[in-house]
Design brief:
This protein is α/β, with parallel strands linked by helices. 51% of the residues lie in helices and 10% in strands. It has one domain (4-33, 62-326). The N and C termini lie far apart (52 Å). It is globular and about 60 Å long. It is built from 16 helices and 6 strands.
Length: 330
């Protein structure tokens, strides 16, 4: 079986997409989780209304926020993470001010849209992946046991989606959970405020981007993802990325390619282009179309889409926006 040449590309794709896929597939990591037991990660807790109000009052700004100025109006671009800690989900004052000033919230996917949820379920159900060898199936089951996920929660997913879902859960013992994804909370705030809430992409596109790699056999992709989980490498890398987001560390985010262990080969770079660069022009066009239509937009997209000359800030600058980074108060 092919091994070494294709390990890094699947690591790249899974790291970039795992949190959002986990949120889409499970809704929250509490779904399907075993009752608390020795060795199991904590189950995500839904904060009470009072806890939400307290969290909002005490929140500080995290993540990466820009003001986009064009045609005499301002919109906003916000770099998120798809997994986070409970205390981090509450937008700080500057982020909340930008949200309140906007009439439209644009997300990669509005995870609270029932129609989108049905489309995702249908797209997953329509996939027809070949059966895995028994040894790989057993390894997947073992990882589900480690994460205390009931087998039936993964049974309807293809192998790559199973890997992505499990990868989204490896930080739960550190309090990092897709149930606390920043995009999900922003969607909740937008719906509660009855703001126009739109998806910039489709579930079919996101699933296709993650799961379709015609150049690599499925068995090899699954083995690569399992190697990453079993080695213990996935957890510290996830911790590092979400900490960079929580600290709004622009310099470390910009250096992602130097420490992610994900761009060593041509195949690595193709995977990165597929997950980020190839999607960014359409994301930028979607944000621009909303703004050009007279709306003041708060666009929340994964932080890695912000990096470099092909990142969203750079692409929107090319479209005539004045880009102003709004730094968190320290």
């Amino acid at each position: 079986m092919l091994r070494l040449p294709i390990r890094s590309p699947v690591r790249t794709a899974i790291r970039l997409a795992a949190g959002l896929v986990g949120a889409l597939v499970l809704g929250s990591s509490a779904a399907g989780a075993s009752p608390p037991a020795a060795g199991c990660p904590p189950i995500a807790q839904q904060p009470s209304p009072d806890a939400v109000q307290t969290g909002l009052r005490n929140a500080r700004d995290r993540g990466f926020l820009w003001r986009l100025v064009k045609d005499g109006r301002s919109s906003y671009l916000y770099g998120t993470v798809h997994v986070a800690k409970l205390d981090w989900v509450f937008p700080g004052p500057k982020t909340m001010q930008a949200l309140n000033a906007s009439d439209t919230v644009a997300l990669e996917l509005d995870l609270l849209d029932p129609a989108l949820q049905r489309r995702m379920a249908n797209a997953i159900a329509a996939r027809r992946d070949p059966a895995l060898p028994a040894a790989l199936t057993q390894r997947l089951q073992r990882q589900a046991q480690i994460e205390c996920i009931a087998p039936e929660m993964l049974a309807g997913l293809g192998p790559i989606l199973q890997i992505a879902t499990l990868s989204s859960l490896v930080g739960r013992r550190d309090g990092i959970d897709p149930a606390y994804g920043i995009d999900m909370f922003i969607a909740g705030l937008a719906h509660a405020a009855k703001k126009n809430t739109v998806s910039l992409e489709t579930p079919e596109l996101q699933l296709d981007t993650l799961t379709n790699d015609p150049d690599t056999p499925l068995d090899a992709l699954v083995e690569s993802g399992l190697d990453e989980l079993e080695s213990g490498r996935a957890r510290p890398l996830l911790n590092r990325l979400v900490r960079i987001w929580a600290d709004a560390d622009d310099a470390e985010l910009a250096r992602y390619e130097s420490w992610c262990d994900c761009l060593k080969t041509d195949a690595d770079r193709r995977a990165m282009r597929r997950m980020l660069d190839d999607r960014n022009p359409a994301l930028a066009a979607g944000i621009d179309a909303l703004h050009a239509g007279g709306q003041q937009v708060f666009a929340a997209v994964g932080s890695l889409h912000m990096i470099g000359p092909k990142g969203l800030p750079a692409l929107l600058a090319e479209r005539g926006y004045r880009i102003e980074r709004i730094k968190p108060a320290r």
